[in-house]
Write a structure and sequence with these properties.
With 253 residues, the protein is mainly beta. Helix content is 9%, strand content 47%. The protein contains three helices and 19 strands. It has helices at 119-122, 204-208, 230-243, and strands spanning 6-7, 14-15, 28-40, 43-44, 50-52, 57-75, 80-90, 99-104, 107-115, 142-143, 147-148, 151-159, 166-172, 179-188, 195-203, 209-210, 213-214, 222-223, 244-251. Strands 2, 5, 6, 7, 9, 12, 13, 14 and 18 form a nine-stranded mixed sheet that branches.
Length: 253
C-alpha cells in the first residue's frame, strides 16, 4: 500500500484568499493547518492505489477534485469569520501536505463550509478570471451544459468475483445539489497551543452507501448531473457531505 496521500483543503489546483470580512478587525496570533485525506473502511484510500472497498469490489481511484466554498469559523457567541470564499482541492496533482493560515483572535466552536459552489459562484463567467483563479476556465472544471462541476471522482471498481472491472466517473454539480456542512471544533487563540490541526477525512464507503442511499456501481457508474443521472449526482453529493469528518488537535510548536 502506498503512503497515504494528504492534501490541504486550501491547496488544490490553486488556493486563494479571495475575500475576508472587512469589518473583522482582529489580531492574528495563532495558526491553523488544514489537511484532507481519503479513507475506505478506516484504511488509507490513496489515489493511484488499490484499496479495499466492499465484499464485491476494490477501488482504484484516479481523480478527486472538489470545490470548497465560504469556509467560515464560528465563535462561541455566534460571530462568524469568513476565511475563504472558494478553493479548488485536487488530490491528483503534486502538492505539499498542508497549508497554514493565521487565526483571528477568538474562541471558535464550529467550522462551516460549502461542498461545491453557491449559486452566485456557480453563475460566474469562467472566462472572466485569470488562469490561476479557482473559477477560471483554465482549471477545467466548467462545462457549459451544467456550469461548474462541484466534485469530480473517477476510478475503477475492480471485481473480486470475476474479471469484469467497471470504470466510474461522478461529475456532480448544479445549484440544487450544493451542500453545506458545519463541523464541531475547539479553537481558542488565548490558549497555550500555537498550532491547530484540522484534519478532514472522507470515508469512501459512505460516499457510495450513505444517508441518501446506495450507489450501485454496476448500474450507476457515472453522472454528468443532467438527465436521468442527476439523481445519482444528488445522491453522491448528499452522501459525500455525510462522509466528511473533522478531527481537530492542538499542538505546542
Amino acid at each position: 500500500m502506498k503512503t497515504l496521500i494528504k492534501a490541504s483543503l486550501f491547496l488544490g489546483l490553486v488556493v486563494f484568499f479571495t475575500s475576508c470580512e472587512e469589518d473583522v478587525k482582529k489580531t492574528y496570533e495563532k495558526k491553523a493547518v488544514f489537511s484532507l485525506n481519503l479513507q475506505s473502511a478506516s484504511n488509507p484510500a490513496s489515489l493511484n492505489d488499490t484499496v479495499e472497498f466492499t465484499a464485491d469490489y476494490q477501488l482504484y481511484l484516479t481523480t478527486f477534485k472538489a470545490y470548497l466554498s465560504n469556509i467560515t469559523l464560528i465563535e462561541e457567541g455566534g460571530r462568524e469569520v469568513l476565511l475563504q470564499d472558494v478553493a479548488l482541492v485536487s488530490l491528483d496533482r503534486d502538492q505539499t501536505s498542508s497549508f497554514s493560515i493565521n487565526l483571528p483572535s477568538g474562541k471558535y466552536t464550529k467550522v462551516r463550509m460549502g461542498i461545491g459552489l453557491d449559486p452566485d459562484q456557480n453563475n460566474s463567467d469562467p472566462n472572466s478570471f485569470p488562469n490561476n483563479n479557482p473559477l477560471a476556465a483554465y482549471q477545467g472544471m466548467y462545462w457549459s451544459m451544467v456550469k461548474y462541476r462541484f466534485v469530480v471522482l473517477e476510478g475503477l471498481a475492480i471485481s473480486k468475483k470475476d474479471t469484469v472491472n467497471i470504470p466510474f466517473a461522478y461529475h456532480a454539480g448544479t445549484d440544487p445539489i450544493y451542500q453545506i456542512k458545519t463541523f464541531d471544533t475547539d479553537i481558542n487563540t488565548s490558549a497555550s497551543a500555537l498550532t491547530y490541526k484540522l484534519d478532514f477525512s472522507i470515508d469512501m464507503n459512505t460516499v457510495f452507501d450513505g444517508p441518501a442511499g446506495k450507489i450501485d456501481i454496476p448500474t450507476q457508474s457515472f453522472t454528468h448531473s443532467e438527465g436521468p443521472s442527476l439523481a445519482v449526482a444528488a445522491m453522491f453529493m448528499e452522501n459525500l457531505k455525510a462522509a466528511i469528518h473533522l478531527n481537530t488537535t492542538a499542538t505546542l510548536d
